[in-house]
Design a protein that fits this description.
heterodimer, A: mainly alpha, 4 helices, B: 114 residues
Chain lengths: 152, 114
């Protein structure tokens, strides 16, 4: 009984902190929205050039980059849907299945390996080394006259 | 706070959907270069259609569709069986093996010419 009486009263949340959290939340959200709109606008206008988004070093499209792009989009969209579907409020999934992680790993690993193969292909073959020996210098005291013929 | 959450939800949804739409539109209209995506790459340029590349493209499309459809249906990431992961890994190995072999053949041919 004595213990119950000495327990501190529950702390009431400060309304100022709630207001601060709200202001910060809106600031960050609006800032992200502005960035998102700017990026999408520049992509549509062509200022952000996506021409070589999936191209390899030679300028042709690379399948490894393409599949990496596809899986990235799929996982991102899936995660977004799952977060939104959580009840009662949006939340990250508690677990991500190992299969999904393996899928991303295979995709990323394939991309990196393909890039390594491309880098190896672009490397010039080892050329034969030619050693050039300079002619012996003229002994001191001797001069060399260079005769330039007159123009025709 | 509820308004902020709703706004953030629509904002991220709009951004992801727009990004996907812009990339898909530019891929389909040719503004993103897709030249030679399933073609054999030789030292003389692009060759014919490569079976290794074609099968990887098909597997990628099938897996992407499966994962996305399962997420839309059950609102959680699906458990992918090991055999399917092995199949996907095999598909990637075939593609990478073909690419490596092609590189090796090109280098051997270059050595013979020089």
């Amino acid at each position: 009984m004595l213990l119950l009486e000495t327990l501190p009263a529950p702390v009431q949340p400060d309304p100022n902190f709630h207001f601060l959290a709200l202001v910060m939340g809106w600031t960050v959200t609006v800032l992200i929205a502005a960035f998102a709109i700017a990026i999408i606008y520049k992509m549509i206008k062509g200022d952000i050039n996506l021409m070589y988004l999936i191209a390899g070093a030679d300028g042709d499209a690379s399948l490894s980059r393409f599949q990496f792009l596809i899986f990235t989009f799929v996982i991102a969209l899936g995660l977004f849907l799952i977060i939104l579907s959580a009840t009662p409020s949006p939340a990250f999934p508690t677990t991500i299945p190992g299969g999904i992680l393996a899928l991303l790993g295979i995709s990323g690993g394939s991309y990196v390996t393909s890039k390594a193969v491309d880098a190896n292909a672009a490397k010039p073959p080892a050329a034969e080394t030619t050693v050039v020996v300079p002619p012996p210098a003229a002994p001191p005291g001797q001069t060399t006259n260079v005769i330039v013929p007159p123009p025709a | 706070m509820a308004t902020l959450m709703t706004f953030a939800r629509y904002e991220i949804g709009f951004f992801l959907a727009s990004l996907t739409a812009v990339v898909a539109f530019q891929l389909l209209t040719g503004r993103i270069n897709t030249r030679g995506i399933i073609s054999e790459k030789t030292k003389d340029g692009l060759g014919g259609i490569s079976p290794a590349r074609l099968q990887l493209l098909l597997f990628t499309g099938a897996f992407a569709f499966y994962v996305l459809s399962q997420v839309v249906k059950s609102r959680q990431f699906p458990e992918i069986e090991t055999k399917w992961l092995l199949i996907l890994g095999g598909s990637h190995s075939v593609y990478l093996g073909g690419k490596g072999l092609s590189l090796l053949l090109n280098q051997t041919q270059n050595k013979k010419e020089t």
